[in-house]
Every structure is written in structure tokens, then in C-alpha cells.
Amino acid sequence: MLRCLKQRDFPVANLKIFARSSREIEVDGQKYPVMAVSPEGFDGIDIALFAGTEGEKGAAVTYAREAVKRGAVVIDNGADFRMDPKVPLVVPEVNPKDIKRHKGIISNPNCSTIQLVVALSPIYKKAGIKRMIVTTLQASSGAGRSAVEQLKEEVTYIASSGYNNLQADVKNKAMPKQLGFNVFPQIGGFAESDYTSEEWKLVRETHKIMHDNKIKVSATCVRVPVRTGHSESVYLETRKPLTADKARGMLSNAPGIIVIDDPKKGLYPMPKDAEGKGEVFVGRLRPDPFVKNGLWLWVVSDNLLKGAALNAIQIAELLIK
């Protein structure tokens, strides 16, 4: 978030950084003082960006409403307020007008939801969407820094030993399964109908952002051995006919989207190329040869940027407009 604020020349007169304890941090060579968080610390703050731990003891639940009481507008990157009907869930390219409904708190959607709805929005506006099946291929950084370290340790160990089924404990064990040279279809805990919490987020957040609970959404969320950059295989059934060529043209002209789609030349989006970039990349657009109005697309984005920090800053930019 600090990097995005600086890169986008966000107008900041007074920047405060809070955490549980005071210290100094360095981002891109610049040092920032960090203060211990307190309700009084939000006095005089216009916009408060939250990116702390979720849940009852987390930053947003503990301090967001205190910040609002003191006149701040809170933009929260966590899940605590996303499904609150009084809190808008905003992706600026998709539902910017929802920001006007805020009562002091605005939620940033889940990373996999953000890139999905950016890619879907132009198609939805033109042809509607009846049904959607999504498989996400989510990078280790979506589970935090320790998950990235776990992946690094596992890959190093397997590459040096030639043994592909780790029995020895790695120092960083952030994920429920081995990720080095492996994938596993679980992100979050298992919930209703044996779908994970991450899969239900994709369903419910898409409905809320698109203002359409009638879209039939079914998802499988998979953790893959990638450092940063989520990929999604998306199958749509549109309500009105829409050719792949028309969809490709619409997406090419849509804000925040870059289309890379020349498979015969080996050109399609990949997470390694999306890392460090703020756009949503779309490719592999093709019709279902067996189902009328069936359409496939492949969606890739940096989950730490557009999927988190950048989207929050873009909400703040909308707010000050």
C-alpha cells in the first residue's frame, strides 16, 4: 500500500502508519516510523487503509469503527465487513457508484474475486451471465510471506535431494499441505456443501459486486507453486449470444484489462509476467463447441497489487474525487 501511494502520487499531507507495536520499517529504500495503534491515533485522519489480521481480535474489527467515529473513511482489505449489507464492496472498474453508499467503511474484495469481476464486467454488461464455473490457481503469496518461504524451502529441498514427498518438517509451515512440486485443492476451511471458505467468497462477493444473485457460480480454489500471481480458468454461459471475437474486442477496450490472446504464437497471460503489474490480463478466449453461448477465458493478475493494495488505493482515489 505504501508503494502504491507513492507510485501513484496520492495526495498525502500527513501519513501515519500503525501496528501493534512501534518500530521503523523500510520500503523501497525509504524509512517510515510505525506507531503503536490506538483509537486516538485516528484523530484528524481522512482515509484509513486497513490491512491487518482478520477476525474478532484483528485490526479492522477492533479499530475500524473507532476510526469512523473520529471522522475517517475506512478502506478495509480484510473479509470482516465484505458481506455487511451496509458496507459497499468495490472494484473501481466494475461498480464505482457503490462507493457513494458508504457509511464510513468500504470493503476491498478478495483477491481472486477482484480479477474475476474486472474480466467479467464488460461481458456481463453486453450479454449477461447465466452461469459460471471457475477454477482458481492461486499463488503462495496469497497466504502470506511465510507461505512464500515454505514454497522456497520445499523447492530447494526437493531439487537438492531428488525426493518429492517431504517427510522432514520445513521451518516455515504456513500451508496445510506441501506446495513445492505439488498443488492442492484447498484454500480456507471446508464449509457448506464441502466447498471451502475461499470458494464461497468468490460466489457471494461476485453476486454482491455485480448486483445479481441469479448468476449461478461454482468454484474450485487451488493453491499452486507460484510465488505471486493468481490465474483463473473461467467458463461462462451468457444470456445473449456473444462471439469470442466480440468479447475479445470489448475486453481490449475495457479499463484495467490487457488482452494477450494469440495461442498459435504461444501468447497468453502467465503469472510470472503479471507479477508487479496492476492490470488484469485475459487470454484463451474461445467458444464452447458443444454448448450454445458457452465461452472460456483465462484470467491472470498480481494478487498483491490489483488483488489487494492497488485496488484499495484506487478506491481511495475514487473517494477523493
If you had to describe this structure to a student in words, what would you say it looks like?
The chain is an alpha/beta fold and 321 residues long. It folds into 3 domains: 2-109 and 309-320, 3-Layer(aba) Sandwich (Rossmann fold); 113-139 and 183-303, 2-Layer Sandwich (Dihydrodipicolinate Reductase, domain 2), CATH 3.30.360.10; 144-174, no CATH class. 29% of the residues lie in helices and 22% in strands. The chain is built from 8 helices and 12 strands. The chain has helices spanning 2-7, 59-69, 111-127, 145-161, 197-210, 244-252, 271-274, 305-320; strands at residues 18-19, 23-27, 30-36, 47-50, 73-76, 105-107, 129-138, 216-223, 230-238, 257-259, 280-287, 294-301. The chain has a 6-stranded mixed beta sheet. Strands 1-3-2 form a 3-stranded mixed beta sheet, with no helix packed on it. The longest helix has 17 residues, at 111-127.
Sum up the structure in keywords:
8 helices, 321 residues, 22% strand, alpha/beta, three-stranded mixed sheet, Dihydrodipicolinate Reductase, domain 2, Rossmann fold, 3 domains, globular
